[in-house]
Write a structure and sequence with these properties.
three-stranded antiparallel sheet; mainly alpha; 429 residues; binds acetyl coenzyme *A; 51% helix; single chain
Length: 429
Amino acid sequence: MSDQGEIILEGKSYKLPVIEGSEKEKAVDISKLRQDSGYITIDSGYGNTGACKSAITFIDGDKGILRYRGIPIEVLAEKSDFVETSYLLMYGNLPNRAQREEFRNQLSGHSMIHEGMIKFFDGYPTTAHPMATLSSMVCSLSAYYPEHLDPKDKTHVNHLVPRLLAKMKTIAAYSYKKAKGQPVIYPKTDLDYCSNFLRMMFGTPAEEYKIDPLMVKALNVLLILHADHEQNCSTSTVRLVGSSDANLFASVAAGICALWGPKHGGANQEVVEMLQLIEREKIPVKEIIRRAKDKNSGFRLMGFGHRVYKNFDPRARVIKVYSDKLLANMGIKDPLLDIAKELEEAALQDDFFKERKLYPNVDFYSGVIYRAMGIPTDMFTVMFALGRLPGWIAHWMEMHSEGDGRIGRPRQIYSGETERPYVPMDQRK
Ligand code: ACO
């Protein structure tokens, strides 16, 4: 097999090196094409563009495979927890006992945020979306570590990584508490990551919060399933911002903003709002499917479709099983789960969805579990951000540890006016 591609432009041939990944995926390297030929490549939405080599996560969208550092997510969801999976993503291997203990201690020990920061929360209106609060608070963390912001200095990075992981859950819980008008609950060092978060969310000073192991397991599973997804929109944002040598907090804050959009992480909130609308207005599932197929309706079936998966999203499979289990164990009968199942069945039998290979994605069922856990709808995307954080950090660290350190800077084909005169004001139409 040839290890070179070739492109012929205006009768001239240009050789393009072929790169092969460890799972035999292939790419042609076009990085010298413009220099040699004057041509760039155009790829709207980057659907066919590889921006980097990465050893973190492997996805086979046709087969519905997702592995972190080689380990299938189904296995991690069953056997691991979020802290261990974060370590795996960021440092490349599962931690041994001592490493895991040290990492857990770091995450518990650094959970508090500066008292000055707690005052920031008072400045936001109670109607503030928690993603707005989260992104600005994470960026604000830069102000507290001016001595440790150099992305090229490993001791700086090692200082910040556990702190960011530990503090983001505290910021997330505080944004909820402030919106509710309740006092913040300080973290406890003797609690694990998920128990700490649940206590900070739902505890009050009036009574001790009872930790439910079922909820802790469900939260661990959800966070693991969201922990990385290679070069998605928010991760690519973190990498692009990071490529300018912006600090870790600034890069992650940008990723949070990218995640907020309804075509990305914001979809989990949209799914539940869609299911609520169907329930409230008693809209038949058939009608929803009709609207989703009608390009003029402006409506899409939220939680369906994925750029990479053209088969079942493996995360959606795991979440569906857990949502059934969790709701049954908690004795909850959520009508939204029934609507979701009915919608899924109808869509999967419809030719429009079949032809376009549109399947439920991770967000289709995650909102149902979050609801069962008592997490309000506008916090769903914050939960996604908490889960995705180790993935963002892993990619940011990988980018800085290898490569040529070039700033990310796509090209364009200009389609505007060619040179024209400046028209004085009194001659303008
Ligand atoms: N409902 C109805 N039609 C859809 C849907 C949907 N959810 N998703 C895609 N389509 C149709 C498109 O209209 C298009 O049809 P066409 O070929 O006739 O023009 C075709 O399927 C391909 O869709 P694209 O938008 O080109 O696919 P793309 O890969 O760009 O987008 C995306 C993927 C954004 C996820 C899209 O499927 C979507 O909008 N889904 C709903 C939002 C959602 O659930 N987002 C969460 C994604 S997962 C995540 O971020 C965790």
